[in-house]
Amino acid sequence: MTRHSTNPWLILVLICFAQFMVVLDATVVNVALPSIQKDLGLSEANLQWIVNAYTLVFGGFLLLGGRAGDLLGRKRLFLFGLVVFTTASLLDGLSSSSGMLIGARGLQGLGAAFISPAALAIITTTFAEGAERAKALGVWAAIAIGGSAVGLIVGGALTQFISWPWIFFINVPVGIAVFLLSLRFVPESRDEAAHRSFDVAGAFTVTGGLMTLVYAIVEAQEKGWTSAQTIGTFVLSAVLLVSFVVIELRAKAPLVRLSIFRTRSLTAANITMFLVGAGLFAMFFFNSLYLQRVLGYGPLDAGLAFLPFTGGIILSAGFASKYAPSLGVRPIAIGGMIVTAAGMLLLTQIPVDGTYVTNVLPALVLTSLGLGCVFVPLTLVATTGLVNEDQGLASGLFNTSQQIGGALGLAIL
Q: Is the pLDDT of residue 25 over 80?
C-alpha cells in the first residue's frame, strides 16, 4: 500500500460522493418509472428492467472490479469506473427508446462495478481496524442506505419540475468533479504479490447466469412456468452458473478464490446482505408505485415520502458505528434484523385504501431504524480480519450480494 499525506477524512468524503452516485442511481429511477413508461412505451413486465439492467450488470461485474482493483490499483479502477459511469449517465439522459435506455443502464452498472469495490477497499486500506475504521464505515453505510432514499427525492423533484432525463444528467458534473479531485488527493494501493491475470471467463459466466435467471423469472409470468422457453432459460442459467464454479476451481487466478468462504464471518455477512438486498430493492420499487398509482402522489411527493426513511438510516447507522466496537457487532446486527423484519411485515399489510401516515410511514420508519443497525455491523464483519490483499475481493463479494439479492428479490416478488 502506498502511503499518502492527505487527510484520510478528505479521502473518505471523495469516496463517499462517488458511492452516493452509485447508490442513488439504483433507486433514482423508481419515482420516474411511470413517466419513463409513458414516454418510451414500456410494458409492466419490462419496466423492472430499467432497475434490473443496472443492478445485474453492477452485481455481476463487481467481482471482476474488486479483483482488478487489487491487481491494477484501486485508485486507477476507481477513476476508470467514474469515467464509464459518467459517460453512461449522459447516454441514459439522451435515450430515445427503451432499448437504448436499458443498454445505457447496463453500461452505467458496469461503471458502478468498478467504482464500488475500489471505493470500499480504499477505505479499508486507509483506516486501520478499530474505532477509526468503524467510524468511517458508519459514514459509508449511511451513504449506502441513505443515498437510496435521497435518490427517490432527487428523482422526484427532477422528474416533476424538469423531466426524467435529468435524473441522469445530474451525474455528469458531479462525476467530473469527483474524478478531478480524486486524481489529486486519493492514494493508490494494490496487491503487489498477486498473479497478474484476469478471470474474464468467470466474470461473464456468473453475470450471464444471473441475468438469464432473472430473465427466466420475469418471462415465466407471461410464458408460464412449465413452458419450453422458461425451462430452457432456467437450464441455461444453471449451466452458466455451474460453469462459473468449475472455472473458479481450475483457474490459476480465479475471480473468486472459493477458499475465502472458509472465513465464516464473511460467508454469514454475504448471505445476510443477499437477503437484505432482496427486501430493500423491492420495497423501494413497490412503494414508489403504490404512492403514485394508488395514493395519487406526484413524483416529488413520492420522493419526499421517503425522507423519514433517510433520517432513520442516519440515526441508526450512527448508533451502530458508535456502539459496535464496545457492544459487539453480533447483538447490534441481530437486533437490527429483527426491527427490519418487523417493518417489512407492516409493509405487507398496506391496504388498497390505505393512507401514507397510517399505513406507510410507521413501516418505513421502523424498517430504516433496523437497516442502519444491519449495514454497519455487516460491513465490519465482511471486511475485518482479512489481509489488505483480499480487501478488493471481500468488498466485491459484499456489494455483489446486495445487488444480486436486490435484482432477484425484485424479479421474484
A: no
Place of cell 447483538: 331
Spatial separation of the C-alpha atoms in residues 64 and 255, rounded to whole Å: 6
* pLDDT tens digits, one per residue of 261-289: 777 777 887 888 888 888 887 888 888 88
Residue 264: how many CB atoms within 10 A of its CB? 9
**What's the gap between Cα 337 and its chain centre?**
19
Could you tell me the pLDDT band of residue 2, with boundaries at 50, 70 and 90? very low
d(CA 81, CA 322): 31
Q: Which of 158, 65, 148 is nearest to 392 (CA)?
A: 65
Residue 258: Cβ within 10 Å count: 10
C-beta of residue 321 within 8 angstroms of C-beta of residue 134:
yes
**pLDDT number for residue 197:** 62
**How many CB atoms are located within 10 Å of the residue 108 CB?**
29
CA 303 to chain centre: 19
**pTM attached to this predicted model:** 0.70
DSSP of 182-222, one letter per residue? HHHHPPP---TTS-----HHHHHHHHHHHHHHHHHHHHHHH
Residue 200 to residue 194: CA distance in whole angstroms: 16
User: Cβ distance 241 to 227 under 8 Å?
Assistant: no
- Which has the closest alpha carbon to 55: 313, 278, 270, 302? 278
Sign of CA dihedral 397, 398, 400, 406: positive
Q: How large is the C-alpha radius of gyration of the chain?
A: 20
∠ Cα 150 322 122 (to 5°): 65
Q: What is the pLDDT of residue 130?
A: 65
Q: Are 273 and 287 in contact (CB under 8 A)?
A: no
Distance between CA atoms of 110 and 56, rounded to whole angstroms? 9
Reported as a single tens digit per residue, the pLDDT across 318-330 is 788 777 777 777 7
